[in-house]
């Protein structure tokens, strides 16, 4: 099941690009060179701002978002689980394994981090 986050955004046209505001996200500002890019940037910014969160800000109703003449109000969605998979942060983890396996792995130039990551993905079926 997707963990879909949906937020209203306001695109403020400027001379050569769009200033993007996501009112429900603290410091939720970005920009894009055209409408498509502005929406993509808003989606990425939402993912970056919320990827470490377990609880998310409540989305406002789009009709309650203030805007000026010429502004474009729209909705942007982010599958936060997919965002996390596509933009993984690495975390250092100490593990204990038998010494003989460490020696054999080094002899075969095995990347232990890559191997553990692959094994965890297989075990978690992702």
TrEMBL record:
SUPFAM superfamilies: TTHA1013/TTHA0281-like
Domain HicB-like antitoxin of toxin-antitoxin system positions: 7-103
Pfam families: HicB_lk_antitox (PF15919)
Entries under Gene3D superfamilies matching the protein: 3.30.160.250
Domain of life of the organism encoding this protein: Bacteria
Name this polypeptide is given: HicB-like antitoxin of toxin-antitoxin system domain-containing protein
Protein's organism: Ligilactobacillus pobuzihii
């Amino acid at each position: 099941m997707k963990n879909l986050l949906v937020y209203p955004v306001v695109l403020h046209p400027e001379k050569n690009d769009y200033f993007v505001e996501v009112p429900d996200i603290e410091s939720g500002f970005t920009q894009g060179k055209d409408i498509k890019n502005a929406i993509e940037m808003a989606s990425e910014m939402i993912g970056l701002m919320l990827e470490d969160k377990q609880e998310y800000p409540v989305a406002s109703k789009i009709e309650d978002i203030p805007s000026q003449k010429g502004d474009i109000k729209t909705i942007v969605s982010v599958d936060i689980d997919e965002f996390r998979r596509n933009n993984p942060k690495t975390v250092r983890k100490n593990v204990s394994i038998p010494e003989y396996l460490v020696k054999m792995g080094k002899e075969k130039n095995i990347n232990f981090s890559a191997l553990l990551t692959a094994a965890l993905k297989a075990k978690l079926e992702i």
